[in-house]
């Protein structure tokens, strides 16, 4: 039945594009859902400042809904001052073609909230288009910044404690190079912290310190503590007798170190 066959071909031709369109729409919906689920603000705009796409997170930070912002000039979503600053970043990006990253106080952008965020802008090349889009990603770094400050505060506190301790304290890496020494250690050996950090004892004190390397290896490989008496002539000619305690130390990122304390007896 040639008539029926021709009719079926016409039906298939009509259904094909619709199915393709449906799949494209499904893909767009999936992409939209993924972008809206991101915990960072994401926006796409044209070089003339028109917002093509903005995810839910970014729109909510501006007190808007995505559909209220998309298709409009980005200047409508912020103050004139903020818009001018962001356009300055856009110009840098378009002139250099290189990503631009800045950290800003969100109080400047989000009605005085006083948090911190990083804004990264990069160019997105679109197939079949000579004009790139500007991709902006804004990430809240308030907590990370607070955590970093707290870590720095704790590190400074521990450093102050170590430097007021009358015992010698040091930390070495797996190659027996010093990564930390306290003030008393420097005083005994007559070397500055800068002279010690990054060097091993053999470099600084000669072959007489070679056995310390072997001891450090035994501590790291055997995962055990070592206690030993160590006699040392200080920089001022005074003989010191230290009761040394060395033990392995593993950092949160998995680095294995040797931690040592010497009590002058």
The count of β-strands is: 10
Largest sheet: 5 strands, antiparallel
* Run of helices and strands: HEEHHHEEEHEEHHHHEEE
Give the helix proportion (percent range). 40-55%
Quickly count the helices: 9
Strand order of the largest sheet: 2-1-5-4-3
Question: Which term fits the overall shape?
Answer: elongated
Average pLDDT, all residues: 80
Measured between the Cα atoms of the first and last residue, the distance is 109 Å
Radius of gyration, in Å, reads: 32 Å
Percentage of residues in strands:
25-35%
What is the strand and helix layout of this fold?
Elements: H1 2-37, E1 41-45, E2 51-54, H2 56-61, H3 66-69, H4 80-96, E3 100-105, E4 116-124, E5 133-140, H5 142-164, E6 168-172, E7 178-181, H6 183-189, H7 193-196, H8 201-205, H9 210-222, E8 226-233, E9 239-250, E10 256-264
Antiparallel strand pairs: 1-2, 1-5, 3-4, 4-5, 6-7, 6-10, 8-9, 9-10
């Amino acid at each position: 039945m040639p008539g029926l066959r021709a009719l079926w071909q016409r039906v298939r031709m009509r259904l094909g594009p619709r199915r393709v369109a449906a799949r494209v729409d499904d893909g767009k919906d999936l992409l939209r859902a993924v972008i809206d689920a991101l915990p960072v603000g994401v926006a796409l705009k044209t070089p003339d400042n028109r917002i093509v796409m903005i995810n839910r997170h970014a729109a909510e930070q501006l007190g808007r809904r995505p559909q209220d912002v998309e298709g409009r000039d980005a200047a409508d979503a912020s103050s004139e001052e903020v818009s001018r600053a962001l356009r300055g970043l856009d110009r840098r990006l378009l002139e250099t073609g290189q990503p631009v990253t800045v950290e800003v106080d969100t109080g400047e952008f989000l009605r005085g909230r006083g948090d911190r965020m990083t804004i990264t802008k990069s160019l997105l090349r679109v197939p079949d288009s000579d004009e790139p889009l500007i991709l902006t990603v804004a990430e809240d770094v308030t907590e990370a910044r607070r955590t970093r400050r707290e870590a720095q505060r704790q590190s400074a506190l521990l450093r102050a404690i170590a430097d007021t301790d009358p015992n010698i304290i040091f930390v070495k890496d797996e190659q027996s190079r010093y990564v930390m020494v306290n003030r008393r250690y420097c005083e005994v050996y007559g070397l500055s912290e800068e002279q010690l950090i990054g060097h091993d004892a053999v470099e600084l004190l000669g072959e007489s310190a070679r056995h310390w390397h072997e001891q450090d290896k035994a501590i790291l490989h055997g995962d055990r503590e070592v206690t030993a008496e160590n006699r040392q002539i200080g920089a001022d000619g005074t003989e010191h007798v230290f009761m040394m305690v060395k033990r392995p130390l593993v950092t949160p990122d998995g680095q294995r170190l040797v931690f040592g304390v010497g009590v002058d007896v």
